[in-house]
Amino acid sequence: MKKKDSRPGSKVRAGSEKKQAYSAKSPRRPETAPKKREPDAVRSAPKAAAKEKVAAPLPVEQVPTRALKTRIGDLPTEQVPIILESSGAGDFHLIDSGNGLKLEQYGDYRIVRPEAQALWRPTLPERVWQNVDAVFTGDTDEDGMGRWRFPKAALGETWPLSLLGVDFLGRFTAFRHVGVFPEQIVHWEWLKNTIETADRPLKVLNLFGYTGVASLVAAAAGAEVTHVDASKKAIGWAKENQALARLEEAPIRWICEDAMKFILREERRGNTYDIILTDPPKFGRGTHGEVWELFDHLPLMLDVCRDILSPKAVGLVLTAYSIRASFYSMHELMRETMRGAGGVVASGELVIREAGLDGKTHGRALSTSLFSRWVPK
Predict the structure, then answer these.
(1) Minimal CA–CA distance to 244: which of 175, 148, 171, 155?
(2) Is-contact 340 171, C-beta < 8 A?
(3) Secondary structure (DSSP) of 106-170
(4) Omega prior to 251 cis, within 30 of 0
(5) For the chain, what is the mean pLDDT?
(6) Which of 34, 279, 305, 354 is the most exposed place for a label (fewest CB within 10 A)?
(7) Does 98 have pLDDT greater than 80?
């Protein structure tokens, strides 16, 4: 089970600060890119107060950079469009959706959260939607802050969940996320199977790793994992999950650092990985104020990821949430990045299928994110 995008702590919005260039000459962002908004603290303050006192911008540390490499050779074979669908797994399933909301089951809790893609009307009656344990209220924007309402009784901040045999904590956060993104189960099942059936131990790099569920799935399957996130809070949460999953002795490196800075250093050192997962936000800040903007910096990130794939690499997975773009944009970028490497690039959307109250009733498919995945064959 995912990502999303401005996850609490790990993906702080870049807001209206001057953007940091990761390349010597950043390409102009396409018109389809979402407009930047003021930081939450500024947006929520009264206008008069904002005029009286404007917070000083955060210091920005320059990130080492390099030019994009020119790739030669044939483009990888393509598979499009691919719809990777999950109807639920472990302690999760999507019950119903509609009217800009989704009704979900997370372990013992039934939860209602905003979902802009749910353009239709709900299938289940209103009384079912009212019989819930938690409802997120406030800003319905993916990055917006809000609060949780508990109609039946006050609930603790965390509760236990399980997925693919890995135990971890769900958490009610101010950004409507609960610490896991269930649509990612399709990638994680692929990850688990690939590691378990490999003829050698595999090294996995998980960029923007958030609460570490993917890292724990990979480690439980037998991989050596490097988990990178710029948020100390997210790293702390991931370590809590590691203890809950009883994987304290698993070979996982938890690294709190800007993802671009980390992979550029790995490239210079000649370190490589067999599988790379990257789930970047639209906007974000690194540990020292480094600014990330997906449309500007993703090409270089994938280019560097290509260079730190091992000679016998088995996969590079990109997921992108809440952006105004077609999956074809991610698809063609991935193919150009992997030009000359052979293999196959499959791209499309991740969707979750409604499963009803019983978790078995086939319902509508709810689109959640774009993805592109390269494999060597």
Answers:
(1) 171
(2) no
(3) ETTEEEEEE-TT--S--SS-HHHHHS-SEEEEE--STT--EEEE-SSS---SEEEEEETTEEEEE
(4) no
(5) 84
(6) 34
(7) yes
